[in-house]
Structure formats: structure tokens, C-alpha cells
Fold this protein.
Amino acid sequence: MIFSGKIDRTTAALFGVFLMLSAGYALHFMTFEEALEYVDWEVILLLFGMMTYVGQLARTGFFKYLGVKAIKLSKGNLWLIFLYLTLITTFVSMVIDNVTTILLMIPLTVEVAELMEINPMPLILGEAILSNVGGVATMIGDPPNILIAYASGYSFNAFIVHLFPTIMIALGGALFISRIIYGRWFKLTPKNIKELMKLEPENYIKDERIMKYLLIVLIFMIIFFGLQDYIGVSPALVALVGGTLALVITMEDPKKAFEAVEWPTLIFFIGLFMLVGGLDQTGLLKDLAEGLSSISPNPLIAAAIILWVAGITSAGVVSLSISRRFGYPISDKEWFKFGIPVSLLTMSISTGFLFILQYMS
């Protein structure tokens, strides 16, 4: 249901929990209380804290400031506009989940594209895909990373050391592919360049003083994430403290502040934890692991199989759904033209990196 895009993932997860609990009570393998025990509340609280913080930083106009600054630096050159906006998207998504990053970047992108009277699709698609690429680089870049970190015990630094170099290679490859695929689009001469150059990035900052304070909080959050191995502080605690400090600094009404929290995402992951718990209780997870082992007793080959299956089934789900919100739905043709080559490239690089790590160890 989720992959078809016809039903929201949160609705699908809740319906799945309903079916699982119905079967659990009928067949006596799981109760609601037991399902709750499978929810990793540290993951949920980490997401909640980061969403709260990001919501306050976004209200200062910081992200629009970055976008407009990049556009002015490009001086109307479409390749530079694409390069700057996708790079900002990539690096922002390393500390903010990719859904939030796209929700912040695409409105500005569409506004600028309409001003220049150009098709925004290459920009939207580039931002959507590279937000996924950038989000993989750090532990806090995307919710799945947080799940992996807590399940495996990998620290913030472990993600940086092992994934950041890989992502930089993938980023370079993605930009190279975009240069080839959208070569003609980059050569177009946009209109209203003079109007575009009149935009002042500083005008998009709503409160510079608060923005600076919040950026200081972000720096300290990243420092404490990095010190996780040495001082043993929980990433969830760091995120909650950061979110709380953001609320104190902005003095925002909590009701309004929590509007920035992606409650459907939190509910989706709570439901997902419960569903995984149900699979564990029935023994299906064990059977799946044994089945994978029978296909390939080599752990490295098994990991590569999981990587490619997950990559193929999830490619584009978030990107396709988000683009619809802004009146520019990504067609299958557009997705296959750019999204598939980039996805195949990043998965190939990741697979190669797996084999390199195995060889080095």
C-alpha cells in the first residue's frame, strides 16, 4: 500500500497495526501492551526533539536566506542555481530529515522558477533525490538512520566515518548524471534575471538575533552528538534539550511550535515498531533471516541483497509524494530518466564500499 502511493504510509501503518492486533488477540500471540513494549521511545523522542528545533529555526527564515543567497550567487546561470540549491539541500538534510528539508526548499524553488519562467522539474527532482543522498550521511539525517543507530549501537561518529565519504562520491556522481541528462535545460536563458538579482537574502530573515542563538544551539547539539562515544549521553536527550532550548529562546507558544512536528511521521514509526514486534512474536522475522541465510551463507552477500532490495522498493516513494503537494507531480518518465540512474549509482557505490570494508577488516 505504501509503495503504490495511493494510501498514506501512516494510514497504512495504523491499518497494519489494527490487523496485526486483531490477529494477535484472536490467535493469542500478542496484546496491545506487548506491542507497546516493542516501540523504541528513544527513537521517537529523538525525532520529536529534532522536529521541534527545526521548526523554530525555519521560522527565523534561515533556510530561505540560504536559498536566496545561493540564487543570487548564480547570477541567473541555471547550472549554478541547480548546483547551489542541490548542495544546500544535501548538506541541510545531513542534520534535518529529508522530508522537512524538501518541505523547506521546494516552495522557494518553485517561486524562483516561476519568476524566471522556467520548468522547475529538474530542480525539484534534484533536490528530492539529493536530500535522500545527504540524509544517509549522518545518524540524525533521516529517521531510518536513527532506527539503525539504536538497533546496531552505531554512534554519530560511526555514521560520519563510514558513510560521509561514500555519500560525497555518490553526490559527485549524481551531479555528473544531472549534467548529462539536463544539459539542454542548463543552457536555457531564464527571464526576469534583473528582478531575481533584486532579491535581498537578508530580507528573508525574520529575526536575526534569534537565528544566531538557534544556530549556536545547533552547533552544541552536533558537538554532543559527536561526543556520544565518550560521555555516553543519549542522542534523544541531546535532541530534547535542543528542542527545549529553541522553545525557550523563541518564547513560542507550544501549541504553535508543535505544529512543526511531523506527527504523522512519529505515528508511522510507532506503528512500524509494533508491526515489527508482531512479526517477531510470530517467528516470521526468524524465518526470514534463515531464508536469507539459505540464499547466501556469506554475510556480505546477504547484506548486499538486503541493500538492493531495500533500495529498489523504496526508491522515490518520498520524492514522488512530496512533489505532488506543490503542483508539480513527478511523472514516471521524469523519475526513470533521473531518479533511477542516481539510485542505481548510489546503491552500486554502497555495495562497493561494503566489499571494501570487508576486505579491510
Summary: Residues 308 and 348 are 9 Å apart (CA to CA). The mean pLDDT is 82.
